[in-house]
Amino acid sequence: MTTTVKGTTAQQDTNVIPFVPTGSFYFSHGIQAFQKRRFSAAVKWLKKAIEASPDEPLYPCQLSVVYTEVGSYHAANQVLTEVLAEHGKEYVDCYYLMANNYAHLGLLSDAKKYVDTYLEQPGDGEFEEAAKQLKEMLDSLEEEDEDDDWAFEDEDELLIYQETAFYHLEHEEWEYALSVLSEMMQLFPEFNIAKHKYAYALFMNGDQKEAIQFEQENLEKDSSNIHCHVNLATFYLKMGMANEATFHIERLLNVFPMHEQQKLAVAETLARAGYYKEAVERFRSLQDKQVVRRRVYYKWYSVSVYHTGNPSKALQLWEKGCKQFPKMSEEGGPWDVE
């Protein structure tokens, strides 16, 4: 006859051995989740593995790989930086992984620095072949002229067309803008930004369906096209389709373009979407004088600064914008813009 005593501290002999999960236990579950592309679960398990075995560099490195897979390149590099700070050259693969992440972000000089560091290490690293291919790609990009969007930047005729188009766009003269951009597309077919500005003017002029279709078709050809994501995010936000816009905004959050016009476009879009803190960081990085004199710069930088707790600077930016673009004053102020 077995008696169960409640409310006492008496302990009975037992053959049951308590199970204490180890870092390797959590890590194996993280790998399984990763292989099944259950990335949220993989992150959870790998973080548990790191907590259980904080001195094991393999676990955070694998966590960085998961972050890279989902496009969180900055988060990945933050983890890898911590591994390098703790373990130094004992875990040289971090240099390649960081180079790969910087390449994805478009920060090519940083990517080149880290891939060179990786290849300078003695011995054959696990990623040596991939690193050599990455270095070849970075070297070839360095040798090439700037991309097609900017290949004609020094040509006077193109600059005249470009400034004329921007003037009409910033003054919301959509039909004039469409006319100028149409000519640009014929005269400079490789100047791709004109096509996306044309789509934007088309949308603002009322041809929403055609503009969206144009950008969707372009995105199918190049899923990383910044201008497509900028325009589609803007179109959907203006149509009140927040869920559709989110897909494109998430892509832009992980993109850091090299060209000033693209930087401005991303900053403006993030501000439109309410990512004010992120937008302020992007606006602060702008240096080109032509870019920082655009209407959208004054307007959306002002809005972003206002919503991040600096109303005096927001008002200063807004007033500068109104001086150059009087129509801005009709919009009230940065607190009124939705």
Salient structural properties:
single chain; 338 residues; mainly alpha; Serine Threonine Protein Phosphatase 5, Tetratricopeptide repeat; 67% helix; 0% strand; elongated; disordered N terminus; TPR repeat
Residues in β-strands, percent:
under 5%
How many E-type strands? 0
**What is the residue-averaged pLDDT?**
83
Helix/sheet category: mainly alpha
What is the CATH H-level superfamily of one domain? Answer: Tetratricopeptide repeat domain
Q: Please give the count of helices.
A: 17
Largest β sheet strand count, sense and barrel closure: none
What is the third-level CATH name, the topology of one domain? Serine Threonine Protein Phosphatase 5, Tetratricopeptide repeat
**CATH top level of one domain?**
Mainly Alpha
Oligomer: single chain
Organism: Halobacillus karajensis
Protein name: Tetratricopeptide repeat protein
Keywords: Repeat, TPR repeat
Would you write up a description of this structure?
Keywords: Repeat, TPR repeat. It comes from Halobacillus karajensis. TPR repeats lie at residues 23-56. Helix content is 67%, strand content 0%. By secondary structure, it is mostly helical. Among the domains are: 57-143, Alpha Horseshoe (Serine Threonine Protein Phosphatase 5, Tetratricopeptide repeat); 256-338, Serine Threonine Protein Phosphatase 5, Tetratricopeptide repeat (Alpha Horseshoe). The longest helix is centred in the middle third of the chain and has 16 residues, at 128-143.
Task: Give a topology summary.
Elements: H1 23-35, H2 39-52, H3 58-69, H4 73-87, H5 93-105, H6 108-120, H7 128-143, H8 156-170, H9 174-187, H10 193-204, H11 208-221, H12 226-238, H13 242-253, H14 260-272, H15 276-284, H16 295-307, H17 311-324
Helix pairs in contact: 1-2, 2-3, 3-4, 4-5, 5-6, 5-7, 6-7, 8-9, 9-10, 10-11, 10-12, 11-12, 12-13, 12-14, 14-15, 14-16, 15-16, 16-17
